[in-house]
Amino acid sequence: MDEDEILADADRRAHNYLTSIGKRRVFPDAAALNGLSAFDEPLPEHSTSPLDMLRLLDESGSPATAASNDPRYFGFVVGATLPAASAAERLMLAWDQCASSFDNSPVAATLERIAARWVLDALHLPRESAVGFGTSATACTLVAIAAARRALLLRKGWDFDADGLVGAPEVKIVISELAHITVKKALRVLGFGMKRVIVAPVDADGRIDPQRLPPLDDMTILCLQAGEVNTGEFDPFAALIPRAKAAGAWVHVDGAFGLWARASAKASLTEGIDGAHSWTTDGHKWLNTPYDGAMVICRDAAALAQAMNSDAVYLTGAHDAQKNLNLEFSRRARGIPIWAALRALGRSGVAAMVERHCAQASRIADGLRAGGFHVLNRVVLNQVLVRADTDEQTVAIREAAQASGEMWFGATVWKSQPAFRISVSSWRTRDEDVDRLVELLCALRKR
Ligand SMILES: *Cc1c(COP(=O)(O)O)cnc(C)c1O
């Protein structure tokens, strides 16, 4: 098989797919979904043609994509991949580096070191922090909490690495009533039982209420949130973090998408967040980098490097080797597309993208309110939570909008009632795309 031929064919097909963005359905129709049955074949006994494989992948696979790269995709907070990030990713595939340390890949180690510095700079977080580039906010939160628990136990003289958890002093967890489901997953996997986790009540907007914050001590990990997934709201860091630190607690912040507000004119929403001990954020959401790229950021670099250490011969893992800052040992250089996005956008480009999305979210909220919808959140960020008059009407309009193939956004339940969750997070989305969304929803409401 000619390597050039198959890679050139892949490039051509990828190019065709990308140029169809904006013209294709945002969610596949029934025929495209039925076409997926073409993949249902037995494992081949012998080698087959890679060109045939690619044709099958494109002809049956491409039509069945959710066009999350489309300017009218408003689901979850998925973003679209910036051309610069996507281009860097392609070159990276050709390099095929195992990016565990400098010895394995000098270029990856160098670029990830610089990406780490730029991320801290863009997000105004403590410059001494270590940044691990992991697969997801889920995995990065797991890593941060593991490092936090180990550090709290170490302060009590408990050697977690040697003695594990049996007989260890108890580490308590406090999370928001509205903590993301993946934070709960990370805690569960780490062995913090859900019945033992302490829940902090939230106010009417969905932020932890400082008046009702459960007691904290020096064996507590407090998990806060920057950007609640329905409302886009932020916990009041300036009120909570100094109290937690005075009690000796460790503060972790899940900022999967919301942390990027700190790189923009919306930074006041994050006031006081830099006082925390660790943070999680994604590249693949609001920074518009490819899946799967996320970051765990830990002020105490040694605490992270010790918890994730895979340098068997040393007591303390090197702080600058990604294999010591993450779960993965053999890994892609996830920091490279993040470096590429930051280099292409620059500080002002990141700010402009975040601010544009927030303005577009407000534009959607205004348009839908004018069309008779109920906007349920304050729209402080890029998330808009919407209802029609009744549950039935809300569900019917969403289903009709999704079936149209003209746009896509997801469903959620807010205060026990069904709602739409509209998220603006794609660099491709223009004001006219937002206006079309409003028009279509208003037309569906009048039907
Ligand atoms: C998406 C999201 C996560 C999980 O991020 P993944 O990268 O998908 O694992 C966690 N918290 C919040 C607030 C999110 O929006």
TrEMBL record:
<keyword id="KW-0663">Pyridoxal phosphate</keyword>
<dbReference type="InterPro" id="IPR015422">
    <property type="entry name" value="PyrdxlP-dep_Trfase_small"/>
</dbReference>
<dbReference type="InterPro" id="IPR018247">
    <property type="entry name" value="EF_Hand_1_Ca_BS"/>
</dbReference>
<keyword id="KW-0210">Decarboxylase</keyword>
<dbReference type="GO" id="GO:0008483">
    <property type="term" value="F:transaminase activity"/>
</dbReference>
<dbReference type="InterPro" id="IPR002129">
    <property type="entry name" value="PyrdxlP-dep_de-COase"/>
</dbReference>
<comment type="similarity">
    <text>Belongs to the group II decarboxylase family.</text>
</comment>
<keyword id="KW-0032">Aminotransferase</keyword>
<protein>
    <submittedName>
        <fullName>Aminotransferase class V-fold PLP-dependent enzyme</fullName>
    </submittedName>
</protein>
<keyword id="KW-0456">Lyase</keyword>
<dbReference type="InterPro" id="IPR010977">
    <property type="entry name" value="Aromatic_deC"/>
</dbReference>
<dbReference type="Pfam" id="PF00282">
    <property type="entry name" value="Pyridoxal_deC"/>
</dbReference>
<dbReference type="InterPro" id="IPR015421">
    <property type="entry name" value="PyrdxlP-dep_Trfase_major"/>
</dbReference>
<keyword id="KW-0808">Transferase</keyword>
<dbReference type="InterPro" id="IPR015424">
    <property type="entry name" value="PyrdxlP-dep_Trfase"/>
</dbReference>
